[in-house]
Amino acid sequence: MKNRILISTVLLxxxxxTYAQELVMLTKRTSAPEKxxxxxxxxxxxxxxxxxxxxxxxxxxxDPQLIGTNFFGNEIxxxxxxxxxxxxxxxxxxxxxxxxxxxxxxxxxxxxxxxLESYLKKSVKHKELSETEASxxxxxxxxxxxxxxxxxxxxxxxxIAATDKAQDLLELYTRRVxxxxxN
Length: 183
Hints:
The protein is mostly helical. The chain has seven helices and four strands, in the order αβααββααααβ. The strands form two sheets. A two-stranded parallel sheet has the order 1-4. A hairpin with a 7-residue loop joins strand 2 (88-92) and strand 3 (100-104). Helix 3 runs parallel beside helix 5 and helix 4 (107-125) crosses helix 7.
């Protein structure tokens, strides 16, 4: 009698573990962002459109020492400082502990902008782009990231996560994300 109970328990647990594994595999397949094929026709390419009221601006009384410098100039330095202020915040590790950790809101967008900044800096150093071209492109990317912060960007974040190459990310930000400013 004990052997039958033991065998049926083992078979029942084995059945549940198989079912759980199938459920995990199914979840992984459906939750992964869809990758676009590089040779897709322009009609099938998703364009992300956002309407915002105005561009975020740096307060006039911000200390220039806090802003620092940037490879692409003062304007980009100000925008990158604003990007850091909007997308990151300090959180206490534990109550009573004075230590804090930096947390990121919308980390996919924030990290992609940082990745593009690094990519464009390398492109200028390797003489693949002129400094003005790279600065204009980074300016557009940062403006887009600052403008869409308060928007629903789940689809955009999924597309960014599915994009591996920095060149494709740059194309996504400069050609496929459109921000309309309403007054």
